[in-house]
Every structure is written in C-alpha cells, then in structure tokens.
Amino acid sequence: MEERSRIRAAAAKDANWPPKIREFITRMSSEIVVPFPFAPTAKPGKHGPFYEFRYYEIKAGTLPDLMNRWEPKLPGRVGLSPLALAGNVEFGTANRFVHIWPYPSLDGRMATRDKARADGLWPPPGGAGTLITQATKICMPSVFSPLQ
C-alpha cells in the first residue's frame, strides 16, 4: 500500500496524469486484490490474448473455507492452463474474490473448462450455498501490458 501511495503521488506531479479522458468516463471503480497465498504468481509473457475475469460475491465469513477448498484443487487446474490471478478483494466490494485465466482462444477456453470438469479437476467441491453473485468478463490486454 505504501508503494501504491508513493507511485500515485509521483504520478500526480506529472502534467500528463491523469490522462485527458474525463469526457469518456461514465463510471469508475477500483479494487485492491490480495492474491491467495497458495496461488502461483503470473509471469510476464504471452498467455492470452483472451483473459477471463471471474468475480464472485460470497457470504460473509466464508472466505477461509473457500481458500481451504481451492488450495488442493488449484495445482490440477493450473496444469491445464495458467492462472493470472486468484485472490480476495481487500479494498473495494466486501466479500468478493476474483480469478483471472488467460486463454489463446475462446474455443480453447471452453475446451479447457470442459476438460477440467470432465477430469474432476475443477471447480472445487462445495461452496454453492455460500455464493451470492457471479460475473464473468472476457478481456484483451492493452499493447503495453506485460501479460499479452
């Protein structure tokens, strides 16, 4: 958090920051996600170009159980495709977690997800009673992203 504050303060001194795009912004939000301690760290490189963002809101107090269910299952799932991020929202929407998976194509995404289910690798069991909402977004990185 200190580094974030330091970088934001330095950026505020830059005449080009923030970018001159205010007229294009209709809504904006920020969240800080803390990676799960057992999740692998994404390495810069070519992983996408399609990234699936999966957001979940869960009942209060259920995150520790979710992490206990995820930890033993994640290595098998990561064996099918890399993980960009899995973690809980520390600042932003309460009781929320996100996981982000890169795929070379949308067909590849479906094939990987189907194989994970068929092989019993994913999703982790249980937890249906803790889920409040789920949302999925498919995104592509900007040209300057270290994760292409």
Structural features, described:
With 148 residues, the protein is α+β, with helices and mostly antiparallel strands. The protein has one domain (32-139): Alpha-Beta Plaits. Helices cover 27% and strands 25% of the residues. It is built from three helices and five strands, in the order H-E-E-H-E-E-H-E. It has a five-stranded antiparallel sheet with strand order 1-3-4-2-5. It starts with a helix and ends in a 9-residue tail after the last strand. The mean pLDDT is 93.
CATH fold name, please?
Answer: Alpha-Beta Plaits
Low-confidence stretches at least 5 residues in length (pLDDT < 50)?
Answer: none
CATH architecture label: 2-Layer Sandwich
What's the number of extended β-strand segments? 5
Indicate the overall shape.
Answer: globular
Domains counted in the coordinates: how many? 1
Give the fraction of residues assigned to helices.
Answer: 25-40%
Rg, Cα atoms, Å: 17 Å
SSE-based structural type: alpha+beta
User: Number of helix segments?
Assistant: 3
> How would a crystallographer describe the biggest sheet?
5 strands, antiparallel
SS strand fraction: 25-35%
CATH uppermost class: Alpha Beta
Strand order of the largest sheet: 1-3-4-2-5
Average pLDDT, all residues: 93
Structure keywords:
about 150 residues, Alpha-Beta Plaits, five-stranded antiparallel sheet, 5 strands, about 25% helix
